[in-house]
Amino acid sequence: MPRPDTSRKACSVALRFLVFFRSKRGNIRTPLTAVYFIDSTAFAVAWKLLLLFTAVFWLGLAFWVFRDARRRIGDWSLVGTATLLGIIPLVGPLVYLLFRPPETLADVRLRDAELRVLEQRLGARAPTCQVCRAEVEPEFLVCPVCTTRLKQPCVKCGAALEPVWLTCPYCATPAGSTLVAVDLDAALAAEARSAARAADTETPAA
């Protein structure tokens, strides 16, 4: 890459040659102020800033290619190749974007973990009866093949309880408790009869 001073001098020489060539033809349209502007300090500063911005943008693209390749490629030799490709101005990063892996390494690891969990769930064996070895569902109370009692039902909601459970997780009823049915009509009738007897015994005394 030519140095800024050399490029500026080349532009100045080209403009001076253009002015000289047109002056020979008798048609001077190129203003001499352009030549003076190129030789000025303002143009030199602007030219250096433009070159600095171009260099920073170029190095930034190369660094972005390096970081993105590290997130997507596990082989360091391929990461280095991608970084060297990213150093090529403009064309290198565009080629890398076309051929880079679609997923990051973190996404690949997460997908593999989800697949392993799914395979474990699909490969888990269904519960079987301890007597006839027939497959049963977790909510079965008895085996449908040999009628062996598998689980005890909850006395309140009827849910199947595991043998080690001390209480029903669905209705909070203690396991093994007895639910006493109360007839409200009979209780109200008995209370009414007792109140009538008490009223009959109090009337003769009055």
Description:
The structure is a single chain. This protein is mostly helical. The protein has two domains: 4-106, no CATH class; 125-206, no CATH class. 60% of the residues lie in helices and 2% in strands. It is built from seven helices and two strands; from the N terminus they run ααααααββα. Strands 1-2 form a two-stranded antiparallel sheet. The radius of gyration is 46 Å and the shape is elongated. The protein starts with a helix and ends with a helix. The model is unreliable at 23-32 (pLDDT under 50).
Mean pLDDT rating: 76
Strand arrangement in the largest pleated sheet? 1-2
Care to count the β-strands? 2
Assembly form of the protein: single chain
Total helical segments: 7
Q: Termini, distance in Å?
A: 129 Å
SSE arrangement, N to C: HHHHHHEEH
List unreliable stretches of 5+ residues: 23-32
Shape: elongated
| Binned strand content | under 5%
Radius of gyration, taken over Cα atoms and rounded to an integer in Å: 46 Å
What portion of residues is helical?
55-70%
Which class do the helix and strand fractions yield? mainly alpha
Major β-sheet, in short?
2 strands, antiparallel
